[in-house]
């Protein structure tokens, strides 16, 4: 393989041109996180870059290395996020034209942020893929240079300067680094950091972190080839990539030690953890590495090790914080969510509260069920998962049937807001499904139009959670003879869905 095909990344990182514009960000000790995990955890504060994200490094390094003739024509990229701002700011600094193609569904706040940094925004398509296709057309038509968000050696080398800084900065700290955790979307950050760290101190582990619903790199590494995902979860939108880069995959395959997976609740908990230590609010993808470090330390039972997590970005929408706050306690396993059956007799509620004891009740939803019993949806603060299990056993011991709903998405997203029983007759042939669709203006109406299939809608719940995914719980009365037609309807609808007809939370509170 030639040098062009197999770059010397150590040399490229050492000679990267990032500091004309990007900052050397702090490596901050996180005392509360360290105490909670039993290890020494440091945060590499890429959220403190001028664009509040590490993406500035790779974008600037790529553009700064362009020949004068190509720089004169300008650059182009397709992005609705941090890469767009990095390219716009880099091009403005170098006096270069920057065209940023964004989907028409991009929130106005992100469009304005790119314009303020000097980018020429072109809105095209309803998705990233459509925007990317339009960007490639403009690249050829206007002789622009495409700046890839991750699959480019100069971009990878720019991100790799983070690894260089971590090793240099940590020399002033106590203890050898055991592992560095980096978020993975397309793989540029992980590839760059691993390329430097493994060349200089190969004994340090470099561990990638993905979400369970966007685990393209983990699947690709297991398969030995790149795997394209059909769907990706959008909560951590900065890392919601369906196909990792060819070059980033090659580097991660050779250099990464492991990939850890975390869920939405763990990310929300990590955002809260970082806020408590720094008073800064990371975006979901920005907190991904922190969530991964916590999960890895828990699974591997690490103690007194030095861990570094790259806090990769802080560009989040304010209205998303209500969802984060709602789910953080569950993600940290500091809130248990139970369905408890209470006997309908005097004193039953008082006895239940006495069994909860000194635990703070965070939520209590009650609905009369029958003359014999009532069902309660209750949230209770606990110190950890073990305490939650002890509380369950105590309730069961005193003849209070209890179901743990702490991991039940339908219960946490929908049922908690709907406790109220059912109308007699609606349960006949009722099928309960949970749907997800990309959240954008008009998306709910589009969903409702697609749902007009002729069956009676007996239940419907939608709540805007401040995320990029719309979530709906719906009940439809489907006669048995229509089963084949119903399955065809679900397939044609084209949205991710889950059958929740047998879900215990639905059965107890709504069924």
Summarize the structure.
The chain is α/β, with parallel strands linked by helices. It has helices at residues 9-14, 31-37, 55-64, 68-73, 82-93, 108-116, 128-141, 153-170, 188-200, 216-223, 246-255, 264-278, 288-299, 321-331, 348-356, 385-397, 409-413, 443-451, 483-493, 504-509; strands at 27-29, 40-45, 75-78, 98-102, 120-123, 145-146, 177-183, 205-211, 258-262, 306-311, 335-343, 361-368, 373-381, 402-404, 430-438, 456-462, 469-477, 496-499.
Overall description:
This protein is α/β, with parallel strands linked by helices and 511 residues long. The chain has four domains: 9-53 and 153-328, Rossmann fold, CATH 3.40.50; 55-146, Rossmann fold; 333-407, ACT domain (Alpha-Beta Plaits); 417-509, Biosynthetic Threonine Deaminase, Domain 3 (Biosynthetic Threonine Deaminase, domain 3, 3-Layer(aba) Sandwich). It has helices at 9-14, 31-37, 55-64, 68-73, 82-93, 108-116, 128-141, 153-170, 188-200, 216-223, 246-255, 264-278, 288-299, 321-331, 348-356, 385-397, 409-413, 443-451, 483-493, 504-509; strands at residues 27-29, 40-45, 75-78, 98-102, 120-123, 145-146, 177-183, 205-211, 258-262, 306-311, 335-343, 361-368, 373-381, 402-404, 430-438, 456-462, 469-477, 496-499. A six-stranded mixed beta sheet has the order 1-2-10-7-8-9, with helices on both faces. A hairpin with a 6-residue loop joins strand 16 and strand 17. The radius of gyration is 25 Å and the shape is globular. The N and C termini lie far apart (63 Å). The model has no long low-confidence stretch (mean pLDDT 88).
